């Protein structure tokens, strides 16, 4: 079937399916696999230590695919300046830049005059409207079911997506709680013109940086096995429940400030779980969709499954 939408036309992709930024996980193997399957794969820029490491990763993607891909900038979440990292994407003529977290205005300023598609992840209607004002080509809208950093108002995907669709003229891409063909079709029914998935892409063969423990926890877990941390810092984020997140919640209740939490919510603590498989010595992001994940397919197998299921649903509506 034809899955053409404003998103596929904008990004020059076959299916309107985008892989999330996935800090410390979204590198060339996963990005190229998603792009080769017909979606938009992404590299996570700010998880790399130097601009030259990003340049190398971009070139690796181009060795593995001739399809469009993006580079994601998680501004405000790593405590680092992004300007030099963004210069690399500009110099390498990356076709798509996506922005998550923080104020995207400085990135738009740096991208003035650059021929690149600009997408912004938002978690509120006003954020979407602001992104459009700044010049975003599309917005990705994440509901509170999603993994990682979310909005402050706990609005679910089912309510938030149509609110944003009615508020902006640019294409809307739904995110949060989506991991299969049913979620894909539900998003389109809400008025979105594509989907972004994060958690589901972690449990794939090509997400080679995710530990086996992390992937297997996504398979064995249920929709009740996640928790919101960092509320006390005004930056709520959904992670897998474990002893480490329980400790974070206790510290938030007792102190609620960054100094008390910094060692527990650090990138190092995240890496101990997701890379090293040390389940009780760190934390891992995941959305409620982990309750729908039952296996670890290849990215191509996942795309085939999603599109086959979506086509069956579409046929049943006719």
Structure write-up:
This protein is α/β, with parallel strands linked by helices and 318 residues long. 40% of the residues lie in helices and 14% in strands. It contains 14 helices and eleven strands. Strands 1-9-8-6-5-4-3-2 form an eight-stranded parallel beta sheet. Strands 7-11-10 form a three-stranded antiparallel beta sheet, with helices on one face. Strand 2, helix 3 (51-64) and strand 3 (69-74) form a beta-alpha-beta unit. Helix 2 packs parallel to helix 3 (51-64). The longest helix has 19 residues, at 299-317. The two termini are 13 Å apart.
For the biggest β-sheet, the strand order reads 1-9-8-6-5-4-3-2
Mean pLDDT: 96
Radius of gyration: 18 Å
Task: Choose one word for the global shape.
Answer: globular
Helix share of residues? 40-55%
- First-last Cα distance: 13 Å
Q: Secondary-structure element order, as H and E?
A: HEHEHEHEHEHEEHEHEHHEEHHHH
Helix count, DSSP H or I runs of 4 or more residues: 14
Number of strands: 11
Residue fraction in strands: 5-15%
Please describe the biggest sheet, giving its number of strands, its sense, and whether it closes into a barrel. 8 strands, parallel
For the structure shown, list the relevant keywords.
single chain, 318 residues, alpha/beta, eight-stranded parallel sheet, three-stranded antiparallel sheet, 11 strands, 40% helix, globular
Please sum up the structure shown.
The chain is of the alpha/beta class and 318 residues long. Helices cover 40% and strands 14% of the residues.
